[in-house]
Design a protein that fits this description.
Layout (H helix, E strand, L loop, with lengths): L1 H11 L2 E4 L5 H4 L4 E5 L3 E8 L4 E6 L2 E5 L2 E4 L1 E5 L1 E3 L2 E10 L3 E10 L9 E8 L8 E4 L11 E4 L6 E8 L2 E8 L6 E3 L8 E10 L17 E3 L7 E3 L4 E4 L6 E3 L9 E3 L4 E6 L11 E3 L1 E11 L4 E11 L5 E2 L7 E3 L11 E2 L5 E5 L9 E11 L4 E10 L6 E2 L7 E3 L11 E2 L6 E4 L9 E10 L5 E10 L6 E2 L7 E4 L9 E3 L10 E2 L7 E7 L26 E3 L1 E10 L9 E8 L10
Parallel strand pairs: 2-11, 20-26, 28-32, 34-38, 40-46
Antiparallel strand pairs: 1-3, 3-9, 4-7, 4-10, 5-6, 5-9, 8-9, 10-11, 12-13, 13-16, 14-15, 14-17, 17-18, 19-22, 21-24, 23-25, 25-26, 27-29, 30-31, 31-32, 33-35, 36-37, 37-38, 39-42, 41-44, 43-45, 45-46
Length: 583
């Protein structure tokens, strides 16, 4: 009895750390575990019915039914499911390595050996010197610098923090000074931050500081410093040649300097709305220009200066040389070129006698005169040369389509810039060939310029032949041999008479037939000869069985078009065969 008791005891007694049910199987055979300082854990051991379980612990306090029992405690096992067990809780204290011991004493005073569980109690993060800083002022659309301080050097942590209203967890590793940067979102307005939790990130217990840090929230303020800006002084210029304004070049009127403690978002002026005055045209007189610099936080600063433009120029042609006026036939009008004066309008005249019809080059002289009589001249060539071929009036010619042949064509038209157009083609009429024939049309003007265009002539017979009624060809006759079984009869002259079919184009046809026997089956199909028949076109010679057969005919023209189907019947009547004459 005693031997069996000890075997059962050592098989069933296990010391288990019991955090939650789904961890039971993972820890049932563990001889050690790791917890955090201050953590409350549950433990259980299985034994015999009514055994006493003696518990002792170092580094913690035993809790039973919510009551502290000190460092030792014993109780009788209770039934739980199919086993007897004792369950306690241990409130672990400071960091260190400790032992939890359980021993069983059965009702007959048999005592087991000690069952020990080594427990490593890990320290909580030390946050006694913990703090954090938030940079301010912060440039818009950037992230403030958030730094945690006062932690253990070169240590991995998980920091819980509030990133401007959003709770986040972030893994960090402190530097040799115990500091680390937190990554936060970019901001476009003032933002508030705070620390919510500090935990080791050791890949094991990851103990969390308890209580959590109690720190005041800190705010990052958006930049409110205006940019610095400097303009050029007042500027005096003469007008550009030929115009009543001055054109700024390069950066001469741009800002001398500008800067900002953050980022400059835009640089604009109120003259052309751009960030440079290069190419801007300043009119005669005084123009005041204001520059505005805006940073990315919306802070602005301005400066201004005057541009003074004076007038002292005569009219000047707007282009150095005039393009030739080129025409095919004649020039009846000329587009007046332009000239510019520094300030006044310009009158433009020429010496041409219009219209100009003469082939070749005519030189026209243009005169530009301003309001006070200053003038300049410029020449222009008028060149008359006809070198343009006629142009077809339509981009492509429609196909000419016929069933049998085309005997005439309608001439297309073309237009010429100067003269009438002669139209010819290379067709050989009539066109009878089935398919597509390409006809080339040639357009010629009076000076011999030509162009061509093609047209498709398509001869395509799509009309079916017509087969007339054949019912008058029906045959009613007796079988050929009364002694033959079955009785049959063949006929000559069953080929289809040519006068029974016609076509719009073809004079040559293919005749086809098929024979439907009295039992409704067919002796052949269209295009094949029936057994014994003369050919696939002539059923003569076929032996028709007794009864009514139907002979179907159709014809095909040269283009393969198939006619309507017509029929007539062949009736073979039974021929009597007397057996004998009695005498």
């Amino acid at each position: 009895m005693t031997k069996h008791f000890y075997i059962k005891f050592f098989i069933l007694v296990f010391l288990i750390f019991w955090l939650k049910v789904d961890l039971y199987a993972q820890t049932v055979l563990s001889a050690s575990e790791s917890v955090c300082a201050g953590e409350l854990r549950s433990y259980r051991v299985e034994g015999f019915a009514n055994s006493n379980i003696y518990w002792t612990v170092t580094g913690g306090v035993i809790i039973n039914d919510g009551v502290s029992q000190g460092t030792s405690f014993n109780e009788t096992t209770v039934i739980s499911g199919l086993v007897y067990e004792s369950v306690i809780q241990v409130q672990w204290s400071s960091a260190g390595s400790y032992v939890l011991t359980a021993r069983e004493e059965t009702p007959n005073s048999c005592v087991s050996g000690d069952l020990n569980l080594t427990v490593t109690v890990n320290a909580l993060p030390d946050i006694s010197s913990f703090g954090f800083t938030v940079s301010s002022l912060v440039c818009k659309n950037t992230s403030p610098s958030v730094i945690v301080t006062g932690l253990s050097p070169n240590t991995a942590y998980t920091i819980g923090f509030n990133d401007n209203g959003v709770s986040k967890l972030q893994n960090i590793t402190t530097n040799a000074s115990g500091d680390a940067n937190l990554t936060v979102d970019i901001i476009t307005s003032d933002a508030t931050y705070n620390i919510e939790s500090v935990a080791f990130n050791d890949g094991g217990t990851n103990c969390v500081a308890n209580p959590a840090p109690s720190l005041l929230a800190k705010t990052a303020l958006i930049d409110n410093v205006d940019p610095l800006v400097a303009c050029v002084g007042n500027q005096t210029r003469s007008n550009d040649a030929g115009v009543c304004y001055y054109t700024a070049s390069g950066t001469e009127f741009d800002l001398v300097s500008y800067s900002d403690n953050c980022t400059v978002a835009s640089v604009t002026n109120d003259f052309n709305g751009g960030n440079s005055l290069n190419g801007a045209q300043f009119p005669k007189g005084t123009t005041t220009v204001a520059w505005t610099v805006t940073d990315n936080s919306g802070n602005t600063n301005t400066c201004s200066f005057d541009v003074i433009v004076s007038d002292n120029e005569d009219p000047v042609a707007d282009v150095a040389s005039l393009s030739d006026v080129v025409a095919q036939c004649s020039v009846s009008s000329l587009v007046a070129p332009t000239a510019s004066d520094n300030c006044s309008a310009v009158t433009v005249t020429n010496d041409a006698s219009l219209p100009i019809n003469t082939q070749g080059t005519t030189v026209v002289t243009w005169t530009y005169k301003d309001a006070v009589g200053n003038s300049s001249t410029q020449t222009q060539n008028v060149v008359i040369t006809d070198n343009t071929a006629p142009v077809a009036d339509v981009a492509s010619l429609s196909d000419v389509v016929a069933q049998c042949s085309v005997s005439s064509l309608v001439a297309p038209t073309a237009s010429d810039n100067c003269s009438a157009v002669t139209v010819t083609n290379d067709a050989s009429l009539p066109i009878n060939t089935q398919g597509t024939t390409v006809v080339t049309w040639t357009y010629t003007d009076v000076v011999g310029n030509t162009s061509t265009q093609t047209q498709n002539v398509i001869v395509d017979d799509t009309t079916d032949p017509v087969l007339a009624d054949l019912s008058d060809l029906s045959i009613d006759d007796c079988a050929q041999d009364e002694t033959s079984i079955p009785q049959v009869k063949s006929f000559a002259g069953l080929d289809l008479p040519s006068g029974r079919y016609s076509d719009n184009c073809s004079s040559t046809f293919t005749v086809q037939y098929k024979i439907q026997l009295p039992d409704t089956s067919y002796a052949n199909s269209y295009g094949s000869a029936a057994l014994g028949a003369s050919s696939a076109a002539d059923p003569s010679g076929f032996e028709f069985p007794e009864g009514i057969s139907t002979l179907y005919f159709r014809v095909l023209d040269q283009s393969g078009n198939i006619s309507n189907e017509k029929t007539y019947t062949i009736s073979v009547n039974h021929k009597p065969n007397p057996s004998e004459i009695n005498y």
